[in-house]
Amino acid sequence: MAQTVNEVTDLMSDKTRRPTSKLQVPTALKYFFMVLVLGLLVLILMMGGKALRDAPPAAIYVSNKGLTSAEYQSLQQVMDQQEVSSFFTSDLQALRDIATGLAWVDQVSVSRDWQRGIVITALPKQAVANFGTERLVDAKGVVFIPADDKDLTQEQFATLQGELTQAPVIMQQMQQVNDWYAPLGIQVDDIILSPRMTWLIRFDNGLRVIVDNENTAQKLLNLSQLLGNQLKSRRDEIQSVDLRYKNGFTIAWNMNQPQTDKLP
Please, which residues bridge with residue 219 across strands? Predict the structure, then answer.
């Protein structure tokens, strides 16, 4: 009996010590599967690229939010002329550059929308003054032509005149003069910067001021203080003031005041 138990034990020990055989995959077969997987990936990528190239052109949706009818039509007409590719491959930056090329456009946003397609949203420049008779100018001194010619020469705006490159300087000067003369209850109606850098300013009460480019700001500031103090009682009688003097200025009075005074 003991011998039988020992024999069974020896058999079990032999099975335990016997090495387990593993299935060995040939190296060539491994490389075959790797190449097959890579080939499938390349095929998928090629098919995906072809699908994108063959996809129908994306729709361009122009938002009318914040735009007048003329501005919307102007932007829509430009976008209708653009040839775009598919939804994913269209060049959004190119569309943005085209939209910002419109003179009246200030900012443009271009985005993709699953339902509407490529969405164009534009913000128009906000005019604060006329620039001559054929342009407007915004608060930053940027001169532009509006989408609608009816917006030109708006009566509620002051009129700036001068070289286009000087528009920011003229705008800044007008804003500064308005601040100085606001306590007097008058504002700039027209302001001109001549090629010789001479300023001609007409206020909404009819007062005209001419000043050269030497100490311009100081001369205009001093005049506003004089009009609010020493000349306050006769301010309505003044027709124009010439500040192109180093040591004083001249006053031309209204027609009922024939004399012309030069003050030190």
Answer: none
CB neighbour list of residue 15: distance below 8 Å, 6 or more residues apart: none
SS3 169: helix
* Each residue's pLDDT tens digit, 153-209: 788 999 999 999 999 999 999 999 999 999 999 999 999 999 999 999 999 999 999
E-strand ranges in 13-116 read: 60-62, 105-113
C-alpha–C-alpha distance, residues 189 and 205, integer Å: 9
The beta strand positions in the chain, using DSSP E, are: 60-62, 105-113, 117-124, 127-131, 135-138, 143-144, 158-161, 188-193, 199-203, 208-211, 238-245, 248-253, 260-263
Reading phi first (left if > 0) and then psi (alpha if -120 to 50, else beta), residue 218 is in alpha
Q: What is the dihedral of CA 21, 22, 27, 32, to 10 degrees?
A: 140
| Encoded amino acid at 66, one letter | G
Q: Residue 5 has what pLDDT?
A: 44
Alpha carbon distance 224, 217 (integer Å): 11
Q: How far apart are CA 170 and CA 178, in angstroms?
A: 12
- CATH number (3.40.50.2300, 3.40.630.30, 3.20.20.300, 3.10.20.310) of 60-124 reads 3.10.20.310
Q: Domain 127-263: which topology?
A: Rossmann fold (3.40.50)
The two domains 60-124 and 127-263 share their CATH topology (first three levels equal):
no
d(CA 169, CA 197): 11
Identify which of 76, 116, 117, 120 has the alpha carbon closest to the alpha carbon of residue 95: 120
What crossing angle do the helices spanning 69-80 and 92-100 adopt, rounded to 10°? 140
Q: Is 46 helix (H, G, I), strand (E, B) or coil?
A: helix
Contact between residue 161 and residue 192 where contact means Cβ atoms under 8 Å apart: yes
